[in-house]
Amino acid sequence: MITAIVMIDADPSRIPEICAEVAEVPGVSEVYSVTGEVDLVAMVRVREHDQLAEVIADRLSKVEGVVRTQTYIAFRAYSQQDLDQAFDLGLDG
Description:
Layout: E1 2-10, H1 15-23, E2 28-33, E3 40-46, H2 49-57, E4 66-73, H3 80-88
Antiparallel strand pairs: 1-3, 1-4, 2-3
InterPro entries: Dimeric_a/b-barrel, Tscrpt_reg_AsnC/Lrp_C
GO molecular function, one term: sequence-specific DNA binding
GO cellular component, one term: cytosol
């Protein structure tokens, strides 16, 4: 599974509609309205790299009101749950 974190600059007057439309794009698992330098953050999860172009360039970036996207591809996932399980197994990190 390939995970991409997509930062989205959006037309402020359409943020609720953009969130709803982006959330419906196949491959998008979550969409967050956030504070800071970008308006929205979308989590994209696909099986193959080629699918990223389909989801992000062909669908997500063409939603009316999406001004710009910036994509970060995750190399490895870490969570407190993963770390707790590793320590339970006796791994030192």
